Amino acid sequence: MDLMELGTALLKNQMSGNADEGTLASVLGSLLGGGDARDSSSVSRESASGGLDLGALVGKMMGGDTSDSFTDLVKSWLGDGDNEAISVDQVKELFGEEKINEAASQLGEDEHSFAETLSKVLPDLVDKSSSGGSLLDSVGGLEGMMNMAKKLF
């Protein structure tokens, strides 16, 4: 199962509505597709992962203009222990309220409900994509992730 399929399945399991998989995949892709900060290496990672670039998300969480609390969160998601929870407010900070509103609107959900859904899905998605270290290894380990974060910001 590629990351897009995994992410879509995780979203579908958490959604109260009847959004179709195509719409869920589209929304997930717009949130986690890498945005404008992509370089040629992230494009190839994105293609290999079914359109999702979790490396960019993890890089954003570990550096740049987000709060320090994101670093501990992402380390827990990438590690082998329990995943720390991300709050609705942190989800909104991470993606921006405009993107959350747009995605929620596409799915027929209210902003808070969708942000709450993402708060449940993101830890599992990053954790499952990094099982055995594959996500971290794909960007050159922790040092590579930190270098990616510097490039993003």
Q: Care to describe what's here?
A:
This protein has one domain: Arc Repressor Mutant, subunit A (Orthogonal Bundle), CATH 1.10.10. By secondary structure, the protein is mainly alpha-helical. The chain contains ten helices and no strands. The longest helix is centred in the C-terminal third of the chain and has 19 residues.
Features:
153 residues; mainly alpha; Arc Repressor Mutant, subunit A; 0% strand; globular; disordered C terminus
Topology-level CATH name = Arc Repressor Mutant, subunit A
- Could you name the CATH class? Mainly Alpha
Note the main sheet.
none
Tally of domains = 1
User: How big is the Rg?
Assistant: 14 Å
Q: Into which percent range does the helicity of residues fall? A: 55-70%
CATH architecture descriptor name: Orthogonal Bundle
Structural class: mainly alpha
Number of strands: 0
Mean pLDDT: 76
Tally of separate helices: 10
State the separation between the terminal residues, measured CA to CA: 31 Å
SSE string: HHHHHHHHHH
Q: What fraction of the residues are assigned to beta strands by DSSP?
A: under 5%
Q: Can you tell me the overall shape?
A: globular
Low-confidence stretches: 34-49, 148-153
In short:
The protein is an all-alpha fold and 153 residues long. The chain has helices spanning 3-14, 21-32, 40-48, 54-62, 69-78, 88-95, 97-107, 111-129, 134-138, 141-152.
What are the SSEs and their pairings?
Blueprint: H1 3-14, H2 21-32, H3 40-48, H4 54-62, H5 69-78, H6 88-95, H7 97-107, H8 111-129, H9 134-138, H10 141-152
Helix pairs in contact: 1-2, 1-8, 2-7, 4-10, 5-8, 6-8, 7-8
